[in-house]
Amino acid sequence: MSSPPTISRLRLLSDQPVEGCELTPDIFLANGVPAHTCRLEYKWYRSITKMACSWCGKTPVIMQRLTDDSYFCSVACFTNAWQGHPNQHRTGLTSSGVRTETAKQAEGWVGRDFTETTEQKWVEVSDVSTYIPSLDDAVTPLSADGSQKGIAKTLKTNYPGTNRTNANRLGFTLLTYNVLSEIYATADAYPYCAAWALPWNYRRRNIMRELINYRADIMCLQEVQADHFENFLEPELAKYNYAGHDVEFNTIARQRHSNDRNVLNRLLKDNVAQLLVANTHINASPEFADVKLWQTQHLVLEIERMLTQHSGSTSTIPVVAAGDFNSLPGSDPHTLLANGLVQPENGDPSGVLATLPLRHSLPLRSAMATVGAHANASAESHELQRMEPPYTNYTTSFVGTLDYIFYTVDRLSVGGLLQMVDDRQVQEHTALPSPLFSSDHTPLLSEFHFKR
Question: Reduced to 3 states, what is the DSSP secondary structure of residue 174?
Fold first, then answer.
């Protein structure tokens, strides 16, 4: 009979717990035994003793000196107390709690007035594999230098003005948001972001609260990994009566170009369009400008096909096309959508555009450019592409507008927009993502009215 497996290592990827964001430990068993093949028992405990800094007496504490179970509220206090640490070893003072007066002098803790600490008391709070800290756990996110930033992690913004404009009109709201896939949210890509704020276990609760707070009738999400959708987003959003449907660009590519292997290989980029209204995530690579345009054109062709199939015309049903188009204002994809036709700026070097019309008949207009949600917007201006927001993607290597909500202006009108994120909040943590904003993109939300 084989001996039961033993735990060789236990760790938490998030070294700084945050209220409302789950903690899931990584468990490594001896001899490489997979953890999922064993029955594991979990116990989570919360201290019910209010811990104060052993140096200055302040709370909360963020550091512990393991040799004597003393706690400190800052790196500075830990450093100040550390000068007496060698004396502690020399005098053999290993008892827990605040030092006696004799011990304080031996350790260099002279002139401080301390209160005796009590033995730490703990209460069990959970027996499942994942624990979500609550406000009762008194945990807060900290900046890299240890300064407290509070527990707020999302920004709730209102529509411009005091009331929504469609209170007595038939309409809907639509949100588009690139939530930043876990495979891209790495320390190498975002070295300025606190390490504890990058894991999906932290960001997913942050993002979920943000999505629910917007209360959009339709959500268009991009960079949603399949396992994250199936295991988290779909069941969580289903609680609020949301459902989704996927259509892959690869399916279209295989249908249209199955006989040309070179063209097919160039077009297979694993980008996805969701057709609730019409939601897309266009390929991001700058060297594939023709693929960006190809995908945008086929998105519009698919919209036109569905309109014709359902109503016999492309002009009877309102359309919204939203998403991360990975294209700047004035680029070929943006021009095609906004103007209805385009001449490719760099031609067609790979021949993937030769059979495309590079035009459409839908009267599309950008919601953000039409109404404007930034200081330079002007409703009278006809140069709509210059009225897009200054950015929807903000990192240290790139700042620009890549996300849009296009709509058919003959059937819909814009009644309100979500205000753009304040620059100061974006720059507070250098760039996006950050502990406050869990994606490198900003969300866009528009309220639409049906024209009668």
Answer: strand
